[in-house]
Design brief:
The chain is mostly helical and 302 residues long. It is 51% helix and 6% strand. Strands 1-2-3 form a three-stranded antiparallel sheet. The longest helix has 20 residues. The chain starts with 27 loop residues before the first helix and ends with a helix. The relative contact order is 0.09.
């Protein structure tokens, strides 16, 4: 191995080190490189949930490929592997970006001369395809879930939280504004916080769960709380087949739109950087276009 390349587990920090899943197919070279890359991403200010997702993307590839050294991977290797995956468009975009970031880092650190990921085909953004959860599916999940998962479902459907945002809810994030008005400080992607108003019922249940959990709403082994991945698994298990935790956010956004809330406000409540992203979450009523045309005609002839 050329001098300077990371190999083996040369960093040790039990509280912060990303320990990759032990597997015979994840070589020492891969584990060492990804451990150091995780520190690099953290130094750049990436959110912990983002770092974990990026590392998991590369770990999945390391497990399934037959290349023990990450710096010997070629563009053809990546294309062959990605081309065999039956992924949704946004998943494909996200995985490609992880490869690009990892190998750009490798070039910058001079572990490799050129990046094999730069020549990967670009993946266009998916067309807007909002999929709000059907009310009957949400009601079924609530009726068949215990209090903990039921609260996760409500946080997605009634407050628009992502799974990673649910995982880190703490009692200190609850804001009592008086007169029965409650809000929640949500720790979003990219370390961007936002404040989301809560209805009274959800706020009181959330407060009770935080107090029972010693501060964390969903206590666990990841710095005191559950991991975002496990929250996602619990939501998927609770929801009927075909629905995911993210469709709860689509439902939250769509209900706001159908109650005449403007897109900019919905964007802020969801924590989106781009209004175009918000548009992919909101589905107008099927009859909305016809009603809009009729209303326009009435105003012009009235």
């Amino acid at each position: 191995m050329p001098p300077g390349r990371p190999a083996g587990r040369i960093l040790e920090n039990g509280a912060r080190l990303y320990v990759l899943p032990m597997s015979r197919t994840v070589s020492v070279a891969w584990r060492g490189a990804l451990d150091i890359w995780a520190y690099w991403l953290r130094a750049q200010g990436h959110a912990e949930t983002t770092i974990r997702a990026r590392v998991e993307h590369l770990t999945t590839y390391a497990r399934s490929c037959d290349i023990a050294d990450p710096w010997e991977v070629t563009t053809e290797n990546l294309i062959d592997w990605i081309g065999q995956r039956d992924w949704m468009q946004e998943t494909r975009r996200s995985r490609r970006q992880s490869f690009v970031l990892f190998y750009r880092w490798g070039v910058e650190r001079r572990y490799i001369a050129t990046s094999p990921a730069e020549a990967l085909p670009r993946v266009r953004a998916a067309s807007p395809n909002p999929r709000p959860i059907a009310p009957i599916a949400f009601d079924y999940a609530i009726a068949t879930s215990g209090p903990r998962v039921g609260l996760m479902l409500r946080l997605g459907f009634e407050a628009g939280l992502r799974r990673g945002e649910m995982a880190v809810v703490h009692t200190r994030d609850l804001i009592n504004e008086g007169r029965g008005d409650w809000s929640l400080t949500v720790h979003g992607k990219g370390r961007k916080n936002r404040v989301v108003p809560l209805n009274d019922s959800l706020a009181l249940v959330l407060r009770a769960a935080c107090l029972a959990g010693g501060g964390w709403c969903f206590p666990g082994d990841i710095n005191g709380h559950l991991s975002p991945r496990y929250v996602g698994k619990l939501l998927t298990r609770a929801l009927p087949e075909g629905w995911t935790g993210h469709t709860l956010r689509h439902g939250f956004a769509t209900d706001l739109l159908r109650n005449d809330v403007d897109l900019r406000t919905i964007q802020n409540l969801l924590g989106h950087a781009s209004l175009a992203t918000t548009e992919r979450y909101t589905k107008p009523r099927d009859e909305a276009p016809r009603e809009a045309v009729r209303a326009l005609r009435a105003r012009r002839t009235g």
